[in-house]
Amino acid sequence: MTELQEIFNFDFQAHLQGPALPAALVGIGLLVGVLTGLFGVGGGFLIIPLLVVVMGLERTLVVGSSLSFTIGTAAAGAARHRRMKNVDLRTVILIACGALVGTVVGKYAHVGLKQHLGPGRFEITFDSLYLAMLVLIGWVVWRGHRRDGSGRSVLQRMRLGPRIDLPGANLASVSLTGLLGVGLIIGLMKGLLGIGGGVLFMPLLLIVVGLDAHKAVGTSLGVVVLTSIVGTALYGADGNVNLALVMVLLAGSTVGVQIGAWLCRRLHAGLIQRYFVVVVALAACLVIISLLGRIM
Amino acid sequence: MWLIVKLLLMILFPLAWGLGSDWVFAKIHSRFVGGGRGGDRSA
User: Fold this and answer.
1) Rounded CA separation A94/A184 (Å)
2) 0.95 surpassed by pTM
3) Tens digit of pLDDT for each residue in A139-148?
């Protein structure tokens, strides 16, 4: 029974101990859930800095546990979008093929960098990578999703074959190599940093692949479920997933998602976009504080 | 053996939680609000 108990215990190092620890984690889950419901994103970009910087948890454990947590949030979203017929299974499977390879490579890159750089330089490198990703996310959202005037997506214009038709996604003559490449990039981010759903994936699906907005959300969620399952298995095999942590985060986020969805129906779309950039900026501030603390 | 059980728990627990919570809230929504379900409007 001890084998199982070790993944159900709050036996990790954190700034808080005792009942305050699960209470704070439920609060973080609630906050991330509100953002998921409000902005339609996974929340990995926020949950990882919060758990590492504010709670003081070990980064690899946080990445592994956040992948397991994402299975729950993305599965709920994917189920909702499947009912709305926004998930084209063929597109999901093709992108997931590239993404699964990327997730495996990303995970081993994470472990390799950790061993090669040593604890101090590893944390500084990953804080810097997160900061770069947050700046990119903020810029992408601020700029908005712009489509190409020709009406054809990047993968439809790409000369790299072979080509396939995706009738379920209303796309003809799409480069299969390009589609697998998109999946590979997303998988790499997921495996290496634990983020890579929602905000970064959406512009790729809209502009590069050419999906419409609703299909892009459903497809993104479907791929995120599959990559998170593979990522959880890889990190979990090394003992870097804590189910107690996942459970309290899910408990908070389940309620938070409903609050976020309720808020979403009452706010103007332009305002939501601005709020999102503010949240990304706050997450970036957290990472900068952590980075400065490690350098000085 | 234990590793397989732990990995299945790490994957199936959040999966069941996500699908279960979606089902429960969809039922509550259809019963008390009626018909439509809240989707991701931010997309």
Assistant:
1) 11
2) no
3) 877 776 555 5
